[in-house]
User: Fold Cupin domain protein from uncultured Eubacteriales bacterium.
Amino acid sequence: MEQNCSCNQNPRPGVITDFGPQPYVTDVNAAARGNPFFRTALWTGSHLQLTLMSIPAGGEIGVEIHPDTDQYIRVEAGMGLVKMGRCENQLTAQRQIWQNDAIFVPAGQWHNIVNVGVCPLKLSSVYAPPHHPHGTVHRTKEEAEAAEH
Assistant:
């Protein structure tokens, strides 16, 4: 069930910083709900990275593939549709996703997540090994796409 957007706010708002590779403990759900940006690196180590994402209503991550990186994505708030497949234009595995759902994307698998709700879709994403530079903040999808190219 879709949650009221006002419930998707971080109870401890503040600037999110990449705390890696130092030991760090946090409430990932609260951090994800409070993240206003498309992508923010919360913790980057030598072998693992956690990013937070905020996908606006009607928005999407965009079809992508990580040839050498496994990815774990958790829905922290909102609802969406995950699509995966072996070919970029044939994402045949599709499933509705909700808060607390987990998505496992093996390296070499094409995937996309679309926000089908009315509130921002809040995600946490673990990459192994890290996929983005330490301290990455992409305020918008367009900024993220420009950084990738």
User: Anything to note?
Assistant: Residues 6-12 have pLDDT under 50 and may be disordered. Strands lie at 39-44, 49-55, 70-77, 79-85, 93-98, 102-105, 110-115, 121-128, 137-138. DSSP finds two helices and nine strands in the chain.
